[in-house]
Write a structure and sequence with these properties.
Layout: H1 2-14, H2 22-60, E1 63-67, H3 75-85, E2 90-104, E3 107-116, E4 131-134, E5 148-152, H4 153-158, E6 166-174, E7 182-195, H5 200-203, E8 206-210, H6 211-217, E9 227-232, H7 238-248, E10 253-257, H8 258-261, H9 265-301, H10 303-311, H11 316-353, H12 361-364, H13 375-399, H14 405-408
Helix pairs in contact: 1-11, 2-9, 2-11, 2-13, 3-7, 9-11, 9-13, 11-13
């Protein structure tokens, strides 16, 4: 009960609840603005990083391995080499890529034909969940009719293609018989589905097909593959996998992890996150100065009340504690309202971002971003706010020891 009466005193004298003083209102308002801005900024950076990682996973999985020995790669040998080198679990799916030109109604663009093993691809990347139109259907080489393939969303829009429609791809072929130069060969495909891989660069060039048809386009024997996707138990084990394989087979495989595939962007995001946090934290620092000013004003305006309380037995230590709790109360209101307004701002941003107008995919390399506030972000921002308000409360709290009861009761 002792703590309850003291807390009631804090609420009454702080000016936060009733009466609502202008200085208290400005303190809470500045804290709210600072916390809201900091939460939105951190959520945006973290959500961009998360979306970028997912776009890499959706195309490359965790590791992409390219056999570098001269003979045709053998899947059984590859699995044996990996099992011999790496003790953890992994899944493999082979693929073959061939570049070509998509020509349709007078428009031409470079495309990537990627053939995958439709029986094992689901074990390394979840392409089926990336289908936004149509169905995930890939025809094997035994099908004599026009093979069905999947294409990227941006490619469909650029050429005004339709689901179920056909298009042609021109593949350059080297001349046989010792003749120099290239000849061309045209392959026709039918669209069975449209993919949104999260990466604009792939959405505008990606054509997915059965590996047998990719082998035909690249004039390779059936079953040939140029690379393998490898999915590990955790994406953080990629360095361990690469080091293990390199140690046992240094010349046989070229390995690229999802971190390396990011091109250093993820490392740049980590640096930018810290810079943005400390820059935006300045708003909370300024708000903490407002809290300190409010406590000084509160102490000056209620000097009579504090003097009366001290005459009836309240110690200066308790008054000092009151000032610190007053700062904590202002911080609580600031954090609470800041979280509420941050959620409202983020909800509005997500509504606008879904239109795609504010996130040009050509610039940010992503087709969409969903901003979310995580518990860790809220915890860090809350702790930083409470710490700054506590430090701001120390000076007013220490000034209590210099107060004179006689001065407060002089005219009573």
């Amino acid at each position: 009960m002792k703590n309850l009466w003291f807390l009631e005193l804090v609420v009454k004298l702080s000016g936060v609840i009733k009466p609502l003083t202008l200085s208290s209102f400005l303190s809470v308002l500045s804290l709210t603005v600072g916390v809201t801005t900091l939460l939105v900024a951190m959520a945006l950076v973290d959500s961009y990083e998360k979306s970028f990682k997912e776009s890499i996973y959706s195309v490359f999985s965790h590791v992409v391995v390219t056999p570098s020995y001269g003979s045709e790669p053998n899947l059984g040998k590859v699995k044996s080499d990996f099992s011999q080198s790496y003790n953890g679990s992994f899944n493999i799916s082979e693929s073959f890529k061939k570049e070509g030109l998509l020509a349709h109604k007078g428009k031409v663009t470079g495309v990537i034909l990627e053939g995958v093993n439709k029986d094992s691809i689901a074990q390394v990347i979840d392409l089926e969940s990336k289908v936004v139109q149509g169905d995930f259907v890939l025809d094997g080489v035994e099908v004599e009719k026009t093979p069905r393939v999947l294409i990227g969303k941006a490619l469909l829009e650029k050429f005004n293609l339709k689901l179920g429609g056909v298009f042609s791809v021109v593949i350059p072929q080297p001349n046989l018989g010792g003749q120099s130069g290239f000849s061309r060969k045209i392959f026709t495909y039918r669209i069975s589905g449209v993919l949104d891989l999260g990466s604009h660069d792939y959405n505008k060039r990606f054509i997915l097909m059965d590996i047998g048809h990719a082998n035909k386009a690249g004039m390779k024997p059936q079953g040939f593959f140029s690379s393998l996707r490898v999915k590990l138990k955790s994406p953080e084990k990629t360095d361990e996998f690469r080091d293990a394989v390199d140690r046992n087979f240094p010349e046989d495989y070229w390995i690229q992890t999802w971190k390396e595939r990011s091109g250093g962007l993820l490392e740049a995001i980590k640096i930018e996150r810290m810079v943005i946090f400390f820059l935006v934290l300045i708003l909370v620092v300024v708000a903490a100065f407002n809290v300190s000013t409010n406590l000084y004003l509160n102490l000056a305006k209620r000097l009579k009340e504090f003097s009366v309380l001290q005459t009836v037995g309240m110690s200066k230590k308790q008054v000092s504690k009151f000032m610190i709790l007053n700062g904590a109360l202002l911080a609580t209101f600031g954090v609470g309202f800041g979280l509420l307004f941050a959620k409202l701002v983020i909800a509005g941003c997500n509504y606008l971002l879904r239109s795609g107008a504010f996130v040009p995919p050509e610039v940010y390399k992503l087709t969409s971003i969903t901003i979310e506030i995580s518990a860790s972000q809220f915890l860090v921002v809350s702790l930083a706010t409470y710490l700054l308000c506590f430090l701001a409360s120390l000076a007013p709290a220490n000034s209590v020891y210099k107060l004179s009861i006689v001065r407060g009761l002089r005219y009573e």
